[in-house]
Write a structure and sequence with these properties.
By secondary structure, the protein is an alpha+beta fold. It is built from 12 helices and 18 strands. It is rod-shaped.
């Protein structure tokens, strides 16, 4: 069966030196005083494996990414990288311990999805041969696809869970209790619940309650299907805040550009009106110029004719007194015209007068034409200037449009994204409401758990109990032979009491025994298991019955030595232990001993460099 192994945990940042801790493929013990980052290591591993968020601590400032090295069952080394702010998980097909400079080989969603394999849960489940396994989720035999988060509760135990009164492997949420018990059953028996056939509840009252819950769960399922690839509410709230800020910036920019465009359009409209008026005047002037040209030619033609008449009259003597040039009559015999009184020189005077008159009209016309031509040139220059200015304004308007169009498109996309986020946040609110409704159906929940418990094989529970008892005996735990796992109580029974009835020190030791025994049980029978176990503070609070808490702040040396001797000699998987106390005896060659001192000048201060108020002291030496 495939097993995973954690190889390193590394924090990287643009302006921070990488902070890293390496894990042995067998035993790693990280020990030292409180507040040196031991529990934070557990939290960070869980975060990269799909937890919703990463704990905030001062030393985390300056780091932007978490890298978790893994060795896959086939021997391939990979690195999972995730932003400290959450989001998707990048998968690199190599061992990376610095800020990645190349694109990831794959991008995996942090949230489990039954409809897609592109998520960290399905990827890891596939590696340990548990992908697409089904676990029962209620009394009607309805099933739910196993998530890797269902397994981390059984192999990655934080300090709070280690000492909690809740039974090992259970979260305390009654809605999930049936599923959690079914996940434990899957590891103990190797069989999932895919063969189950949904059946109605045997009693009418239960049917009624079941019908109510079914409606709620159906609605909840629909909501969950809509939220499969959606970020968690905290991330959505952060995204919404950033979106609103960005939308305000875009709106302000578009408003400013729109105002500028309006001003340019007004100016452009004025130029177009002026251009139309000038063109109309120019057209009228051109028509008038043509008419004046024709009139000028007429005047010049008239003057030419008058000049010809004057020259002919002089040559023929039309303008002198004497013998008539037409009939040869002497002056005495000529019949005088009353109007001209027989004075032939008046004809010449008339020609001269007409010539002067026509010449005067021509001169006036030429002045008028010159003025008209001057005005035409002014209009032509003004039209060119107006057209040039209008073209310049048009180009400026087009440039503004070119800037505004993408901004408008971005704004539309941002508004659509905001609407989508608000819709998803509303869906999360509905999910919370439906989950509260399900919690209120307490009687039905107890029936579901009882149904799931019935699926636990008595033989498997007996052999698992023996493994727990054997483990505790190796640790010198009192009355270890009588300790057992009770499938009805779903808890460890020690000293005829449930684990929850004991103090937190005993609860921690029993939880550690449960977790290690479950892993070894699977290894011995070649059944699926993640392959690694992480325990935070399994020993520090433990005191045997004959030792008071006031007598000594340290756990008994015999138990400490026995515990570390046992996990090195009798555990076939990978184990990582976080403890405040030292192992006392040197660990074996294949183990890694990492000591945090909480002293800046001695060894390694902690997992992350210490923040001292004026800056960050970079202390990354690893002991052991």
């Amino acid at each position: 069966m495939g097993r995973l192994a954690l190889s390193h945990l590394t924090f990287t940042g643009t302006n921070a030196a990488p902070a890293s801790v390496d894990f042995s493929p067998h035993v790693t013990v990280i020990h030292g005083p409180s507040d040196t980052g031991k529990s934070f290591i557990v939290d960070a591993i869980d975060f990269v494996l799909g937890a919703k968020e990463l704990k905030e601590i001062p030393e985390r400032e300056g780091y932007s990414r978490v890298l978790l090295g893994l060795e896959l069952p086939a021997g391939e080394r990979i690195t999972l990288a995730r932003s400290v702010d959450g989001g998707s998980i990048s998968l690199y097909r190599s061992d990376i311990r610095v800020e990645p400079s190349t694109p990831a080989d794959e991008t995996l969603a942090a949230k489990h999805s039954a409809a897609s394999t592109k998520n960290i849960s399905r990827f890891l489940l596939d590696q340990v041969d548990l992908d697409e396994k089904q676990v029962r989720k209620n009394a009607r035999n309805e099933t739910h696809m196993l998530s890797f988060r269902d397994l981390t509760r059984l192999c990655l135990i934080g300090e709070t869970e280690m000492q909690a009164e809740e039974a090992p492997g259970l979260s305390g949420n009654p809605v999930n209790k049936t599923k959690e018990v079914s996940a434990l059953k899957l590891l103990l028996t190797g069989e999932d619940d895919s063969a189950l056939t949904a059946v109605p509840s045997p009693q009418e009252q239960k049917r009624l309650r079941g019908a109510r819950q079914e409606v709620v769960e159906r609605m909840l399922s629909q909501l969950e299907s809509q939220l499969q690839d959606v970020a968690e509410t905290t991330e959505l709230a952060t995204q919404l805040g950033k979106l609103n800020s960005t939308i305000d910036e875009h709106s302000t920019m578009i408003g400013s550009l729109t105002e500028q465009r309006g001003q340019l359009l007004v100016a452009h409209s004025k130029l177009q009106s002026a251009d139309n008026a000038q063109r109309s005047e120019y057209s009228d002037a051109a028509v008038l110029r043509q008419r004046f040209t024709l009139l000028q030619k007429q005047y010049e033609s008239d003057l030419a004719r008058l000049e010809m008449i004057a020259e002919a009259g002089n040559l023929l003597g039309y303008f002198r007194r004497g013998t008539c040039v037409f009939c040869g009559a002497e002056p005495a015999s000529q019949h005088l015209n009353v109007d001209c009184e027989g004075d032939t020189t008046s004809f010449g005077v008339s020609v001269d007068s007409e010539t002067r008159k026509t010449q005067g009209l021509l001169d006036d016309l030429r002045v008028t034409i010159e003025n008209l031509d001057a005005r035409t040139e002014v209009l032509r220059a003004s039209i060119r200037t107006t057209r040039r200015d209008a073209l310049s304004l048009q180009k400026r308007i087009e440039k503004l449009d070119a800037r505004m169009n993408p901004e408008k498109g971005n704004l539309r996309e941002l508004l659509a994204k905001r609407s989508e986020i608000e819709k998803h946040m509303g869906l999360y609110e509905q999910v919370k409401t439906f989950e509260d409704m399900i919690r209120r159906i307490a009687d039905e929940t107890e029936a579901e758990v009882a149904t799931a418990v019935a699926g636990l094989s008595l033989t498997a529970v007996r052999e698992f109990s023996a493994e727990i008892s054997k483990r505790l005996a190796e640790w010198d735990y009192p009355s270890a032979a009588s300790v057992r796992y009770d499938r009805n109580e779903l808890d460890i029974i020690a000293g005829d009491q449930r684990r929850s009835a004991h103090g937190k020190g005993v609860r921690a030791v029993l939880h550690a025994a449960f977790t290690l025994a479950l892993a070894q049980y699977c290894f011995d029978r070649e059944m699926p298991h993640p392959g690694f176990v992480v325990l935070d503070s399994p020993l520090v609070t433990y005191r045997p019955p004959d030792q008071s808490t006031e007598a000594d702040d340290e756990p008994p040396e015999g138990v400490v030595r026995a515990f570390y001797r046992d996990i090195q000699a009798n555990f076939d998987g990978q184990i990582i232990v976080m403890e405040n106390t030292d192992p006392l005896d040197p660990l074996g060659d294949d183990a890694r001993d990492i000591r945090f001192t909480k002293h800046i000048d001695v060894g390694r201060y902690g997992f992350l460099p210490v923040v001292d108020g004026t800056g960050t002291t970079d202390i990354l030496t690893i002991e052991g």
